[in-house]
Amino acid sequence: MNNTDLPITFSRQIDAATADLSDKERMIFLMGVSLAMRCAVGAMTDIAGLLRNSVPELLSGPVTIRRVGL
To answer: Which of 5, 11, 23, 57 gives 1 a disulfide partner, CB atoms 3.0 to 4.6 angstroms apart?
Structure first.
């Protein structure tokens, strides 16, 4: 698999898994891999957004004696 953004080790695993498949079967397999990777990227993007939004703001909340000193 040349000219792809896949890591070389992943490309080798795909080549080994599809070595005995026809070109059509290999293309169907690669389309499934592509779909799965797009779904994974979407899920990771959602998780990253949730984590980014979960960071507390240290200066939010009620005014306390400690906060007045800041």
So the answer is: 11
pLDDT for residue 45: 95
Token pair of 5 as six digits? 């953004």
Q: For the segment 21-70, what is each residue's pLDDT rounded down to a tens digit? A: 999 999 999 999 999 999 999 999 999 998 888 777 766 666 666 655 55
Task: With respect to residue 53, please indicate whether it lies within any of the assigned structural domains.
Answer: yes
Q: What is the overall mean pLDDT for the chain?
A: 83
Q: Is residue 2 part of a domain?
A: no
Residue 41 CA to its chain's centroid (Å) = 3
Q: CB neighbours of 18 closer than 8 A, spacing ≥ 6?
A: 25, 26, 29, 30
Report yes or no: 10 and 17 within 8 Å, Cβ to Cβ. no
Could you tell me if 18 and 29 are in contact, meaning their C-beta atoms sit under 8 angstroms apart? yes
